[in-house]
Amino acid sequence: MDVIDPSAAVIVGQEVRKSWGKTAVHDGLTFRVEPGITALLGANGSGKTTLLGMILGLHKPDSGSLRVFGLDPSTAGHEIRGAVGYSPEHHTLPPDVRAHDLVRHIAELHGLPNRDATNRASDALWAVGLGEERFRPIGTMSTGQRQRVKLAQAIAHDPALVLLDEPTDGLDPVQRDQMLDLIRRCGTEFGINILLSSHLLEEVERVCDAVVILGGGQVVANGTIEELRGGGQGVVVVVDDHGADVAALLRARRIELHLDGNRITISSTDEAVLDLVRDAVAQVGTGLRRLHPRRLTLEEVFLGVALTDSLSSSASSAHGAAEEVVRARHG
């Protein structure tokens, strides 16, 4: 029997390809997921759920290599599924079953004895805030409560990895905030590795340490959010007051900038430009509160990687996917 290697990378993909019939879903995915909370980010239809299925060993790649804790899901799917919790996107929970009974049953399917599964089910439901509601039939619960049940059944057997497919789907803003807090807690307090599939940039920025971005059937970016955002472009200047006057002096020197109150964003990092900033602040007679490199937002990273890839055959679809994700953020 194969045994997962907890010291190995959580997931490694090399040139993974997958098609359904004549439709290519993945065209050479190469990526790496390290311990922590990682987002699988992409527009709807970008193949996120298909990739989750391959990670679980439910679908086999047409070609390429995929490893989960060092094991091949195609040949060691049973062992991998025993160490992985999964929360599906769609609400497929049986309405007449009590939450505790369902979570206990899933834990037993993962190999826990009945007594341990019973205790773990209670612990998991308390952890997600459903301790008082754990004996209610799932069909009587709200959408937010059902999403919590799905999270509870995914973590009850103490997995090494949890796959969450659109875990905030159907939730109102308050419920979404609560769910994201729970996910972050699972990763930080419980020490569970999490791969969160989402098309919402705000979710990713809030809870994730790293990201795998899908677009056009390929991985268009992979790394920690800090790495991808990097040092950004330009600098941010914050003055005590009279920001418009400082901006006017800089524009007179043909410096491109964006003014927002007393916050000035400048596209250049040239040392001569920084000297002009200091001169303008001194000339106006205000105080320089902050001057630091501007960091890219994840939205800019997502759009930028698609644009950078504009010479590839998949660029237009990757950029279209990026725009769809950005629309989801602002919609």
TrEMBL record:
Keyword annotations from UniProtKB, A to Z: ATP-binding, Nucleotide-binding, Transport
CDD domains in the cross-refs: ABC_DR_subfamily_A
Keyword Glycosyltransferase part of the UniProt annotation: no
InterPro entries linked to this entry: AAA+_ATPase, ABC_transporter-like_ATP-bd, P-loop_NTPase
Keyword Nucleotide-binding on entry: yes
SUPFAM superfamilies, per database record: P-loop containing nucleoside triphosphate hydrolases
UniProt family annotation: Belongs to the ABC transporter superfamily.
PANTHER family membership: ABC TRANSPORTER, ATP-BINDING PROTEIN
Protein name as it appears in the record: Unannotated protein
Organism: freshwater metagenome
